[in-house]
Amino acid sequence: MTKRAVVLLSGGLDSATALYWAGKRGYRTSALTVDYGQRHRRELESARRLARAAGADLTTLSLDLPWLPDSTSLVGGSKPLPDIPVGRIGRNGIPSTYVPGRNTVFLSLALSFADARDAQAIVIGANTLDSSGYPDCRPAYLRAFEKAARLGSRAGVQQRPFRILAPLLRLDKKGIVKLATRLGVPLEKTWSCYRGGDTPCRRCDSCKLRAKGFNEAAQKDPLVH
Question: Global pTM?
Answer without folding.
Answer: 0.94
